[in-house]
Amino acid sequence: MTLTLLNARIPGERSLIGALINVVIDDGVIRGIDFVGATGVISLTEVEGDTIDLGGRYIVPGLWDNHVHFSNWAQARRRYDVSASNSLEQIVGIVRQWVDAGKGPFLGAKFLANRWPVQPHFSALDDVSGDTPVYVLSADLHSVWLNSAALAEQGKAGHATGYLVEQDAFDVMMVLGNVSAAEGDAFAADAARAAAARGIVGIVDFEMDWNVATWRRRIANGINQLRVEFGIYTSDIDRAIEMGLRTGDTIASTDGLLRVGSHKIISDGSLGSRTAFCYAEYPGMAGQPHAHGVLNVAYSDLVSIMAKSWAAGLSLAVHAIGDRANTLALDAFEAVHCEGSIEHAQLLTYADIARFAELGVRASVQPEHAMDDRESADSLWAGSASEAYPFRDLLTAGVTLSFGSDAPVAPLDPWFAIASAVERTRGGLPPWHPEQRIAPEAALAASARSRIAVGEPADIVIIDYDPLLSSVDELRNMPVMLTMVAGRVTHSVL
C-alpha cells in the first residue's frame, strides 16, 4: 500500500521556495520525494494510495535511543522518584510517611548520594521503617540503599552499611525486576507507546536479561512500536555463541524489528557512586581501597573476553566512564582489533579522544548526563572537568557519536539529549563548558540512523518546530505529532 505524506517542511529551509515536500512511501521505504515549491502542490486526485497532510510541519528521520535498560525503565516509571530530595534526611522523611500510611514495602529511585556529606546507612532507614523492607536505587543504578528488613530479604543480613555498589547492587536490582512475564510486558507496552510519542523508532536495549527471548515474546504479543537491538552480557555469551548469534543478524518471526546487538561489558562504575575508574583519586578518599574508583574487569580479562566475542561475530560495547577506564578500554580495542563502542565515555584524556577516531571506536554518549552531573563533575573530577563529556572535541577528531539516555538513569527522550548537546544547559543555568556545544545538525545525526531520502527506511518523525532553529526549551519540549516505523504509524496526534 502506497502512502504519501503531503506538505512536509524541511528543517533549516524555512525561507526557501522548495522547502515543502511530498514523501511517497511504499513497502516501508521512501520511494519518492516531490519538491512542492518547484512543481506546485499536488492535488489529492493525483496521489496514489492513502495520504496524510502534514500542513507544513517539519519532517526528520526517526530517532534512536542507543543505550537504554528498557524493562528497568518501564518499571521505574512506577517507582517513587526521590530525585527532588536534597538530603538523606528528606528521603528518610518520605519513607516515614510511606510506612506510617501502611503502603507496604517501599521502592524508591534516583537518589544522589554524591551530594551528601555522609554515605547512606541502613540505620537511618531502620529508625522509621521497622519490619517494612525499604529499597532506594541510585540515579546511576550503580548503588542501592537498603534497610535491615530489605537486607534480610535479599540474604544480606549483617551487611556493614546497607549501601551496596556495583555487582552487589546489580544483583539486588535483578531480583527487584523479576516480575512475571505478563506484568513486565504490560509495563513494556506502555513504555513503548511513551517512547514512540517522543519520536523514537528504535532502541539499543542493554537490559541485564536474555533479551532475545524477552523481545521475541513482546513483539509476538503486539509490542511493535520500536526496532530493537539487544545487548548480550558476559554471563550469557557462551549461550549466544552456541546459538550462532552475530551482531546485525535479524531474529526470525519478529517482522524485522529485532536484531542482535553487541556484547556489553561493564568495565568500571559511575561518577555518582564514586566508582568510575580514574587516574586521580576522588576527593576525601585518599588511602581508601577504591580511592580511584572500581575496575570491574581486569585488563587481561577484558582483552580475553573481547577477543572471544569478536571471533564469534559479536561487536563489543564496553561501559567506561572514568578516564583510566576509557584508556584501558581503548587499549583492549587496539589489542583485539575489533569493532564496537565505548558506552558513556564521560571523562577522557585529550590523547584518548584522538584514539577513538584512530581505532574506529564509536562514542555512545548520553548528553543529558552532562546536565545531571555538572555539579558532581566539578566537585569529584576537579581539575579534569574540562575533559568531561567532550562532544565537540570528539566530533572534531572525527569520532562517530551515538546519542542515548541510559534510561531510567535519564528520561527516555531524545529531545533532552539533543537539547543538552546543543546548548549544554538546563533549567536556566549558564551553559556548562559551552566550548563543547555541537551544532543541532550534528545532534540530530547522532540521534538517527536514516535520512529523509529516496531508498531510505520510512522511519519518520513529524514535529511542530524547526529543530535547527529552536531554543533549548523548544527542543526539550518538542511537540511530536507523528512517528512512523517502516511507514507504519506508531504514534499520531494529527
UniProtKB/TrEMBL annotation:
Q: Which InterPro entries match?
A: Amidohydro_3, Metal-dep_hydrolase_composite, Metal_Hydrolase
User: Origin, by domain of life?
Assistant: Bacteria
Domain (Amidohydrolase): residue spans on this chain: 50-491
Output the SUPFAM superfamilies linked to this UniProt entry: Composite domain of metallo-dependent hydrolases (SSF51338), Metallo-dependent hydrolases (SSF51556)
GO MF terms, alphabetically ordered? hydrolase activity, acting on carbon-nitrogen (but not peptide) bonds
Gene3D superfamilies xref list = 3.10.310.70, Metal-dependent hydrolases, Urease, subunit C, domain 1
- Report the PANTHER family cross-referenced here: IMIDAZOLONEPROPIONASE, PROTEIN LONG AFTER FAR-RED 3
From the Swiss-Prot or TrEMBL record, give the protein name: Amidohydrolase 3 domain-containing protein
| Protein's organism | Alpinimonas psychrophila
